Amino acid sequence: MNLHHLLNARHAAGKPVRVALIGAGKFGSMFLGQVPHTPGLEVATIVDLDPQRAREACRTVGWDSARIETTKFISDGIAAIKDGAIEVVVEATGNPAVGIRHARAAIAAGKHIVMVNVEADVLAGPLLAEEARKAGVVYSLAYGDQPALTAEMVDWARATGFRVVAAGKGTKYLPIYHDVTPKDVWGHYGLTAAEAQSAGMNPQMFNSFLDGTKSAIEMAAIANATGLDVPADGLLFPPCGVDDLPHIMRPRDKGGVLEKSGVVEVVSSLERDGRPVFRDLRWGVYVVLEAPNDYAADCFKQYGLKTDASGRFAAMYKPYHLIGLELNISVLSAALRNEPTGQPRDFRGDVAAVAKRDLRAGEMLDGEGGYTVWGKLMPAQASLKAGALPIGLAHGVKLKADVAHGAVVGWNDVEIDSANDTVTVRREMEKRSTAKT
C-alpha cells in the first residue's frame, strides 16, 4: 500500500523506474496510456515488429510529441533488454517461444521481467521463475490480467487465515464453443466479420477466449502460482452468478459441484441453454473461502457476506479487471519492492492440445484459437503421464498420426524439432518436475 510513496521518492531523486515494453498491442497500449500520468515511471524503449505502428499506438493513447521523440522504437527485443538503463522488461508479445527467449535474456541481464505473455508462462513459467529467483531478479505475472488478480485474492484469503475452497474467474462459455473456429467466431460475439475486421480484431485471438483455451491457460497459471489443484478432468465451467458462488463453488459432498476443496475453476456467464446468468462474473475474479470456526462463520453473517446454507462458505470477488491499465502495479512492485504480483512456484497445471475435429496425418496444427485444436486444462502430472502436447507447442507442427475429434494430441503424434530452443526449455521443466515427484 506504499507503492505511490516509493515511486514519488524515486521521482524526486530523479531516478525514474525505466521500462522496456516488448509488444505494443492492446495490452501494451493500455499500459502506455497510463505512463504520462505516472511521474517516476518511464518507458524508455518500445519494441514491436512494426516500430511505426508502435509510435501510432502511443499517439492514439495520448502521448505528446515530446515524449514520443525521446522514446526508442525498435524491433529487436534482445537489444532493448541489453540496454543498461532498463530496470524492468514487460513481455507482452503473446508468442510463447518469443516470450521464453525474452524472459531468459532479461534474467541473464539482471532485469526484472513482467510476463504479460501468459502463454509463455504456462509453457515454461515454473522453470523461468526458478531461474529468476536464483539470479536475484523478479519474475512476475501481470497485474490487471486475471491470473495475477486471482493470485492476490488467494494470498489475501490465506494470509487472513481462511481456507481457499476455489478460485478463478468468469467467462462466457457453452460446451459447443470448444469446436468453434476463427471462421465462425464473430457470430458468438454478436458481430459480423466485416465489423470485426474494421475494428482490427484478430479472429484467432478472440476465438482462444471463446473456445476455452485462454481460460485453461489462465487457470494453469493460477494453479502454478498458488498451489491450488487442477480439476482431474478439466474445467467444468458451471453457470454461476456472484450471489451463488458460495453455494455452487464448494465440494460435491457439501452440495456444490467441485470434486474437492482447493481447486481452480471458471464460472460461466451463460446457463447451458444460453440464457444469461443473473449477476454474472464474466469480467471478474473470485475466491471462495471457508470459515475456520463457528465464530468466523458468525462474523460472515454479521457483516453481510453471502454464504451457503451452512454459513461456513463465503465468497469475495472483483467484478472487473482493467488489463493493461493496472500493469503499473506489477512494474513498480518488482522495481521498488523486489516482489512479484504472482509467480509460479510449482508445475501443477498444464494445457494440452485437443482435436477440434478428426485430424489426419500430414495436417498442420495451427495452435491456440485456431481451426485444429483447443487447449484443455489438465493436472501437470496427468499431462506428463499421457505425453500430452502443450498447446503452446501446437502451432506450425505437422501431424504424423491421425487424432480423433476430442482426443488429446500427444508428443508422439507430431513431428517435433527436439533441438528447438522452446522445446528444450519445456523438456527441461518437465524433467525437473518429474524428478520432484
Instruction: Note the overall shape.
Output: globular
Strand composition percent: 15-25%
Total domain units: 3
Number of strands: 14
Mean pLDDT: 96
| End-to-end separation | 38 Å
Q: Which structural category do the helix and sheet elements fall into? A: alpha/beta
What can you tell me about this protein's structure?
This protein has 437 residues and is an alpha/beta fold. The two termini are 38 Å apart. It has 3 domains: 3-144 and 324-337, NAD(P)-binding Rossmann-like Domain (Rossmann fold, 3-Layer(aba) Sandwich), CATH 3.40.50; 147-173 and 212-321, no CATH class; 349-436, Alpha-Beta Complex (Type Iii Antifreeze Protein Isoform Hplc 12), CATH 3.90.1210. It is globular, with a radius of gyration of 22 Å. The protein has a 6-stranded parallel beta sheet with strand order 3-2-1-4-5-6, with helices on both faces. It has a 4-stranded mixed beta sheet with strand order 8-7-9-10. The chain has helices at 3-12, 26-34, 51-60, 65-69, 77-82, 96-108, 118-135, 146-159, 185-188, 193-198, 203-210, 213-226, 245-248, 294-302, 328-337, 380-386, 421-436, and strands at residues 17-22, 41-47, 72-74, 88-91, 112-115, 139-141, 163-171, 263-268, 285-290, 313-318, 349-355, 364-366, 373-379, 395-398.
